[in-house]
Structure prediction request, 517 residues.
Amino acid sequence: MDTIGFNQHTSHEYNEELEEIRNLLLNMGGMVEKQLQKSVQSILQTNTKMAKKVIKKDLGVNALEVKIDEECTRIIAKRQPAASDLRLIIAVIKCSTDLERIGDEAEKIAKCGHFLIENNFQGQFYKEFEKLSQVAIQNLHHALNSLARLDFEAALATVKKDDFVDQLFESLNNDIILSMSEVPNQIQSLLRLSWASKALEKVGDHTKNICEYIIYLVKGKDVRHLDIDTLKEEYF
Amino acid sequence: MIDTQITKKPKTIAEIHAEHKKTVGQPFCKDAKFSTRNVDVFYGDKQAIFDVSLDVGKHEVVALIGPSGCGKSTYLRCLNRMNDTIDICRVTGQLMLDGEDIYKKSQDPVLLRARVGMVFQKPNPFPKSIYDNVAYGPRIHGLTTNKAELDEVVELSLTRAGLFDEVKDRLHEPGTGLSGGQQQRLCIARTIAVQPEVILMDEPASALDPIATAKIEELIHELKENYTIVIVTHSMQQAARVSQRTAYFHLGKLIEVGDTNQVFTNPAHELTEKYITGRFG
Prediction:
């Protein structure tokens, strides 16, 4: 939980600046989560309008990333942050990059959705695709909650859940590949569904990255590229 | 929607300080130049330093940081017995330089101060020429036998202090006529002229502009090849830039000692964290 106390600086202005970048990041997280939900819905509900809206709104996500980077640069120049403040700034910059990429993946999914609707795809594997999307979106939601609460234990639990996203993707993708040989006239559409699934798998990877930055922010340990079980035993 | 943030009432600084019993981190090192154990310092009845144990390694730069009145300068002044000049000051505990007790009765404080030089916050050149400022120490300690040798020591010291090129044409002009930054480097040259083993610096750049500060920091970087340096500084960035280890003092207690990179990115103690991030209200 948040025992770091970002609002306890002697300088109230500094408190506000750090609060501002945290809020911007959480807003960006909320925006990206919504984009991802809408992109998946556009496929499952065959909603072209929704897909187009997601594609258009990605610009807003990109703009927010630029704004967060600018704010962080300004704080570094002005305050020379140290310790947990420095880790917050680094984590915010890193998380905003991953969130922006999740936004890009949502845009990709929406573009695939647009193609599938235009080509009257019959919705094979939508059940499996929906399951994959639910797990990926739920993980992102948990990661964003961990970020808001600075809850490293919840972040650690979410890191572990990424394996399930990978399994679901592998299984779905194998089925799609098999189906391609059976119905060659559907290859274009099946390929789009595969790309959309791959995008969800990448969302899982970015979510995992975000969780690792939360652990870094709260505990000061860089846990990237480490085996999570060993890590839990050694550090926590 | 993202869940709202949960906040917990933090402990006060006084509560955390009262709970602190033992220095966290790595106060000791294998190749210690200075080895101090259980040091207490009293000014009359008032205790200023509480049970401080800390090693300073050979050719290491250790930064002492902490809020005003935390005892970092008092501790620094114990290392060359500068506190002897204060009548009401009493130092207890063990302070060893190369394994020898610097507070033993037979220890001459003047000779100790030749081995452990000191640079102060405000540049304090003698009202003498630049040359004589640097030559003063070697003369009184009889380190040279003739003028040529003394000239060599003066030139070498000024060169090591990064000042020779700037003053070589006016060595016999008053040292007080130099700029603040040059005066401070002159004081460093004066300190190293007696070939000390350790240099103690008490906020050496706090009265200097950023360029003069950068020169002093560059000098510290070069001097660490040959000297052991202990520096007291109020500038966190300076401590982070010049030192290998950082020690954090609070109200007379040594709270944490650690690798400087670790202390400034992930301090182990809550008080250190609060101090270096400016969370002291």
In short: The radius of gyration of chain B is 20 Å. Residues 147-160 of chain B form the longest helix (14 residues).
